[in-house]
Amino acid sequence: MAQAKSQQQSQQLFDLLKRDHRQSEKIMKQIESASAEEREDLFQTLNEALSDHMQMEEQVFYPQLQKIPELQEMVQDALEEHKEAKEYLSEIDDIDVDDDDWFSTFQDLQEGVQHHVQDEENQIFPECKRYLSDDQFAQIVQKCIQFKEQIGEVVLPKQRGATARGQQPGSRQK
To answer: Which of 34, 105, 139, 149 ranks highest by number of CB atoms within 10 Å?
Structure first.
């Protein structure tokens, strides 16, 4: 029974983070085939989604992991990847959407984000299961939900992975 609860707590956290990952991947895929005007709007949505997600990880998720010596190097790598992503986001924001450099810089961002997501989901998440307690998972989940609510995102904690009716995962209330 304790094992099932532990898996439920960790899965709830991983589902929350993976939902953000899938939403960002979806937006990046849309950008690939969008017109310049659509690309600009989609990029602003992506910029907001990635920035919010990185801020949540940096304020809530990673600080817990940094307390564990075996995870410190992975967290440092993840933070470095966040720094690179922020630099790309800023650079892209400064380039005219019709400029050839815009799309090549976007592709660099996309590759970096994909690499980060793979590392997080395939390396960091499994290691978290080894080192975090049920209480730590529960605290992180609660703090992530609070963070998302503070930025106006609708999250229903009782329903893993659910959002309010009519809301896309990762979208904000208007």
So the answer is: 105
